[in-house]
Amino acid sequence: MLEQLKAIEEKYEQNAARMNAPESYSDPTLYAALAREQKELGPLVEAYRRYRRLERDISEARALLADPELRELAQSELAQAKTGLEKTERELRELLLPRDPNDQRNVILEIRAGTGGEEAALFAADLYRMYALYAESRGWTVEPVYSNQTDLGGYKEISCVIAGEGAWSRLKFEAGSHCVKRVPETESSGRIQTSTATVAVLPEAEEPDFALDLSEVRIDTFRSSGAGGQKVNKTDSAIRVTHLPTGTVVECQDERSQYKNKDRALRVLRSKLREAELARQTGAVAQQRRNQVGTGERSEKIRTYFFLRGQVVDQRLSGDSRSFPLGEILSGRLDSLIDALVTRSQAAQLGEQGGTV
Q: Taking a C-beta distance cutoff of 8 angstroms, is the pair 289, 279 a contact?
């Protein structure tokens, strides 16, 4: 593996030289491609160089152990360097794991109320607010696509595009059935109710990824619907796009501009069709979205929000790492939870790979 790291360092140095060459300055596409690769290789090269420095430090400290006057200092430096080497080795192994090619993509997020009626719709609204706050904290943008709001302010269904660097790498772990246990606003007797909402997360397809034949798409306009009042759009600007060969339907009604609604609806449709095609190519039985969300039954939950206990428990984690403060999570501070899921995913990959540097 050290030979692999050496080759990566050589590639990094070659790219740096090419970026400073005249031909790169005259070719913006080439320069941008080299810059992207350097950004990906940079952390790995930095860790590899640190690993080699620590190896030299260990060798020098061992040489000083023979000197009685310097032995104590050498022992301290040796222990410190060994600890650093072990830490850097773990870092290198993680950096060498195969990367998800979608990690830097934007995300199509869909939330649907599951079991629990009006309370499930209110919970879906809580989840949407949570993800919107998390996106804001990461500097991402949230572009609403479609919503079906209830009279009490919940959502039977809501979808959006979350755009920003690394959106998929973080939010892909959120797909599945989320469960809430609380006394709902609609409950007069004070009984705790269990409700669910399903979350689907898709990487947004870019135009070169999937060639959408517009002759196979029917586009309909209609008047936006909603819970009533001023939020309802009075013009026929809402868009429904239907992919005729597959029957896939996407609606977008958030914008007052028919053009913007059409653009977003086609972006979502392209992403759904791309995932369906990838699923067929890999022999999957169903689309990734359906695999993610299941049926919305309580038994399929990936995470439970306990309001009386003030805790969120992620069923995919184990031990002390599975519980998180409810208020922190619902206010969009999801990094500690997602970091634990990333670590779990990396540990599983390392277990499959085996070996050391």
A: no
The model carries a pTM of: 0.66
* Rg of the chain on CA atoms, in Å: 25
Spatial separation of the C-alpha atoms in residues 313 and 320, rounded to whole Å: 10
What does DSSP say about strands 301-306 and 176-182: parallel, antiparallel, or unpaired?
A: parallel
Is 163 in a helix, a strand, or coil?
A: strand
φ/ψ of residue 112, rounded to 5: -130, 135
86: exposed, middle or buried (Cβ count in 10 Å: 0-12, 13-18, 19+): exposed
Query: pLDDT per residue over 177-214, tens digit each?
Result: 999 999 987 676 778 999 999 999 998 876 555 677 88
- List the 193-203 sheet strands across, edge first: 141-149, 155-163, 107-113, 193-203, 176-182, 301-306, 311-314, 323-325
Residue 301 near residue 179 (C-beta atoms within 8 A): yes
What angle, rounded to 10 degrees, do the helices at 335-353 and 71-95 form? 90
Which tens digit of pLDDT belongs to each residue from 293-343? 444 454 468 999 999 999 999 999 988 778 999 999 999 999 999 989 988
Q: Which amino acid is at 266?
A: L
Candidates 167, 181, 176; CA nearest to 199 is 176
Alpha helical stretches, state H, the chain: 2-19, 22-25, 28-64, 71-95, 117-137, 167-171, 258-281, 288-293, 326-330, 335-353
Report the alpha-carbon distance of residue 272 to residue 340 in Å, rounded: 28
Report helix, strand or coil for 212: coil
The answer to whether 318 touches 340, Cβ cutoff 8 Å, is no
Q: Please, are residues 41 and 47 in contact by the beta-carbon 8 Å criterion?
A: no
Q: What is the 3-state secondary structure (H, E, C) of 82-142?
A: HHHHHHHHHHHHHHCCCCCCCCCCCEEEEEEECCCHHHHHHHHHHHHHHHHHHHHHCCCEE
